[in-house]
Design a protein that fits this description.
The complex is a heterodimer of chains A (202) and B (368).
Chain A (H helix, E strand, L loop, with lengths): L1 H13 L4 H6 L1 H8 L12 H13 L6 E5 L2 E5 L5 H10 L7 E9 L3 E9 L6 E9 L10 E2 L8 H12 L3 E2 L31
Parallel strand pairs in A: 2-5, 6-7
Antiparallel strand pairs in A: 1-2, 3-4, 4-5
Chain B lengths: L8 E6 L2 E2 L4 E2 L1 E7 L2 E8 L7 H5 L4 H9 L6 H16 L5 H29 L4 H21 L8 E2 L2 E2 L7 H24 L2 H7 L7 H6 L5 H4 L7 H4 L20 H25 L18 E9 L2 E9 L7 E5 L1 H6 L2 H5 L7 H7 L4 H5 L1
Antiparallel strand pairs in B: 1-4, 2-3, 4-5, 6-7, 8-9, 9-10
Classes of the chains: A alpha/beta (202), B alpha+beta (368).
């Protein structure tokens, strides 16, 4: 018996990449190494769909692109419409996104994406308000992003952090001093291109 | 800038090593006599690049990095990251695991608030409160140690549930513990809350209106102290929080005393939640059946939960591999610390410590 079991375990080890073994776990195993990747589920509830329609209507002038992130509504606007669209989101009586939760900057290698996570305390709406900024090879941003600090004062430190780690320059922000990093630090460690492992000056 | 002949301003440096900052935080105060004119907070002394580091770790390893954000409420941090991954992968967490998570997180909330209570007493010049609060906190830490094997940095909440089943005597021990805690909280309350000196140090000091608090992005107990009823557990319920009956304590004045008293009252509500959870919890599995390697589908997700210090959020970007593409943490302490500038301007220099302490910041989370 013992021999048998050891043999079988050996054979499974050897046959690990054989098609017979692969077929067994094929349905879920196939996409993980192949080029096609599973996409996140979209589970927007009725209120979320209502909000999506509402935001698309109210922002119609600013070329919004609507999307869904699992259970939240996302809306993307061109960078030149960012400020105007933000004002609509805050001041529109049907939306009232009065609470600035967070600014997430994501480096997608070809461009940077700014994600403003907004919340409406009045209606309980949550939204991901996005915009794309191109950046040059050197890591410094070319496009200037308008600061939303005047619209949501809470954006102050979040923008400084984004400038610190990703090199996004926010025009109209009174203080772009480093926040998390020290003054002499060079480079933008948030970027995917930052030589993370080779960096030795610490 | 032209110097004003009538104004004699002085710069006072506080920190980065200062007992009242509860960590490494520096602020440069510009004072005119006894009044603070302006303040420039300097953070980042504890910046470890947790977000960047997460990009080179697997999903299950990132949980340990979250332990180290707000290092006095570790379990709450772990929960948020696990919730984000579970949301992205549509994992149904077993009910028993969710109840246990709630019990552990609420206990952790009490432990964290007890730490705040004790250290805030110290900030105000009262030495005794911390003796009482740390005695009680120690009981919670002992329970955590027997459940998770560690006093801090538990790594107990895992993607899909818990690491393992809790010990057999867990329910009995929690029941004993909350009995002791509710007497201890009343004891703490009588010890400090109505103390004449404490009242005169905190009442009417560092007032912020509800409108201003929302604008500057405050969250958690400091926001509720200004009278805003905003608690993720109630407004956007996660796990099984919609099954419990509990109150959200809010303040009326938005001063330092309210910011001190809201957490104290919250501990009582946490005990109510734990009691209900212990009644409702049933036997069952504590972890969902998952693949050994976590590979969420491609996409973005935002999950948030009410931490002791406020609304901790995670914006997670997955590219379909076994490592996250981007992890962005929305730290509540960071957001609360932004309110320091409006709170301190025109305050007395002697109140700087009291006001900073009332925001209850943890620098591990501010700097990440």
């Amino acid at each position: 018996m013992e021999q048998d079991s050891s043999q079988s375990s050996e054979s499974t080890n050897k046959d690990n990449e054989a098609p017979t073994q692969g077929e067994e776990i094929a349905p879920s195993a196939a996409p993980r190494r192949g080029p096609q990747v599973q996409l996140a589920p979209e589970m927007l509830d009725q209120a979320g769909e209502g909000l999506s329609v509402l935001v698309a209507g109210e922002l119609a002038m600013h070329d919004p692109v609507m999307g869904v992130a699992v259970d939240q509504v996302e809306v993307e606007v061109p960078i030149q419409n960012l400020e105007a669209a933000a004002l609509v989101l805050r001041d529109n009586m049907k939306l009232r996104f009065n609470y600035f939760r967070c600014l997430a900057t994501v480096d997608y290698q070809e461009y940077l994406e700014l994600v403003y996570l907004l919340y409406s305390t009045e209606y309980g709406y949550q939204i991901m308000f996005k915009s794309r900024v191109p950046y040059t090879e050197g890591g410094s941003s070319t496009a200037t992003v308008p600061s939303l600090r005047k619209i949501w004062p809470a954006a102050d430190w979040h923008e400084r952090e984004s400038h610190d780690l990703f090199g996004v320059f926010f025009s109209g922000h009174p203080n772009m001093e480093p926040l998390l990093l020290y003054d002499e630090f060079e480079g933008f460690p948030g970027l995917k291109s930052f030589p993370f492992n080779e960096y030795e000056d610490w | 800038m032209e110097p004003d002949a009538n104004l004699v301003e002085m710069m006072v440096n506080m920190g980065p090593q200062h007992p009242s900052t509860h960590g490494v935080f520096r602020m440069v105060l510009k004072v005119d006599g006894e009044r603070i004119v302006d303040v420039e907070p300097h953070i980042g002394y504890l910046h470890r690049g947790s977000e960047k580091l997460s990009e080179s770790e697997t999903y299950s390893q990132v949980v340990t990095l979250f332990d180290r954000l707000d290092y006095v409420s570790n379990l709450n941090n772990e929960l948020v990251f696990c919730m984000a991954v579970e949301k992205l992968m549509s994992i149904d967490v077993p009910e028993r695991a969710q109840y246990m998570r709630i019990i552990l997180c609420e206990l952790n909330r009490i432990a964290s608030h007890l730490l705040f209570y004790g250290t805030y007493g110290l900030d105000a010049g009262a030495i005794t409160p911390i003796m009482y609060s740390f005695r009680e906190r120690e009981r919670i830490q002992n329970l955590f140690e027997s459940v998770t094997g560690a006093r801090m940095m538990h790594n107990f909440i895992r993607i899909g549930g818990l690491k393992e089943e809790v010990p057999v005597d867990f329910t009995r021990r929690v029941k004993d513990l909350i009995g002791q805690l509710s007497t201890a909280i009343d004891e703490c309350d009588t010890l400090l809350s109505q103390n004449e000196i404490f009242l005169s140090r905190t009442k009417g000091v560092g007032v912020i209106s509800a409108q201003a608090a929302l604008e500057i992005g405050m969250t958690g107990p400091p926001l509720r102290a200004s009278g805003v009823v905003e608690d993720v557990r109630a407004t956007d319920p996660y796990q099984l929080y919609d099954r419990f009956d509990f109150g959200i304590p809010v303040g009326t004045n938005g001063d330092a005393w309210d910011r001190y008293y809201v957490p104290l009252e919250e501990m009582r509500q946490s005990i109510l939640i734990i009691e209900q959870a212990l009644e409702q919890v049933e036997a069952g599995p504590v972890v969902a059946q998952l693949r050994r390697i976590t590979r969420p589908p491609k996409g973005v997700v935002f999950a948030h939960a009410e931490n002791p210090r406020g609304d901790l959020g995670v914006y997670l970007v997955s590219d379909g591999t076994d490592k996250p593409y981007r992890v962005k943490v929305r730290p509540p302490s960071f957001c609360n610390l932004q309110a320091l500038k409006p709170l301190l301007s025109n305050a007395y220099l002697a109140d700087a410590v009291i006001i900073l302490g009332s925001l209850d910041i943890i620098l591990g989370e501010v700097d990440r």
